[in-house]
Amino acid sequence: MADRKLLAVSDLHVAYPENRAILESLRPTSDEDWLIVAGDVAEQYATVEWALKLLSERFAKVIWVPGNHELWTPPKDPVDLRGEKRYLRLVELCRALGVSTPEDPYPVWEDDGGPVTVAPLFLLYDYSFRAPGASTKEESLRLAHEAGVVCTDEYLLHTDPYPSADAWCRARVARTEQRLSALPEGTRTVLVNHWPLTREPTRVLYYPEFAQWCGTELTRDWHLRFGAVSVVYGHLHIPRVIWRDGVRFEEVSVGYPREWRPRPPRRHLRQILPLPPRTEEGAR
């Protein structure tokens, strides 16, 4: 048991040949390793299926949460489902592969440090990480359009049957909050979501207007309320470790080739459990 690890990766974006090669290179360190895949595997349904199938055959357990890219409805995808129906089809796919999703019982990781509940979450965003100077969602979106910083979600991520992303987000937050609140008192957790649970990681974005597509203020204290020993996320393509309130926040993104090529070489699979030694804030 001492050698097994809970590993994590996100934002594989395997439509890029270089990133597809990265995915094909991912392998466990032992036969008992688990893998968290924190969203943005690909856009096309068939590509997501290929990637998760490969990973599920290599790792003892795979845990997936959706990113915004899996939720897009690309024009040429034969699976043309939109919104919640697309998400639920992806959940069906994962279940057929033995992959855990936010709709399944939370798996419990056991090692010498004791049990930890790994909670995959799907929460979206509600535009509450507003652009600088904006006091409303509408004003924040206007400033983003004026700056030319508009997330592709506005065109390809449909929210049916919800009227908007923020409405879907509020529904997901309410449902997930109820579920996490039902965990036994004292439960230690790893909270996994594609989007950051707090606004703090977005402070370093080159384009601050983009933060409004990156999470919700409704989850800003969840790491404290729900016993997190680690929070795993992606989306920003800024892989690093941040410590807040004694909790490790770990972005596990790979990102696009143009982003990772200039960086020093690093391991793409990040160890979440057993907890690594504490490091200084920043990329590793």
Structure commentary:
By secondary structure, this protein is α/β, with parallel strands linked by helices. Helix content is 29%, strand content 15%. It has nine helices and ten strands. It has helices spanning 17-25, 45-58, 68-71, 83-97, 137-147, 153-156, 165-181, 222-225, 257-260; strands spanning 6-9, 34-37, 61-64, 108-109, 116-120, 189-192, 228-233, 240-244, 247-251, 270-273. The chain has a six-stranded mixed beta sheet. A four-stranded mixed beta sheet has the order 3-2-1-10, with helices on one face. Helix 2 runs parallel beside helix 4. The protein is globular and about 50 Å long. The protein starts with 5 loop residues before the first strand and ends in an 11-residue tail after the last strand.
Oligomer: single chain
Radius of gyration: 18 Å
Q: What is the average of the pLDDT values?
A: 95
**Structural class based on helices, strands and sheet pairing:** alpha/beta
Total helical elements:
9
Number of strands: 10
Q: Which band does the percent of strand residues land in? A: 15-25%
Shape: globular
Major pleated sheet: 6 strands, mixed
Q: Portion of residues in helices?
A: 25-40%
Poorly predicted regions: 280-284
Order of helices and strands: EHEHEHHEEHHHEHEEEHE
Strand order of the largest sheet: 4-5-6-7-9-8
Gap from first CA to last CA:
26 Å
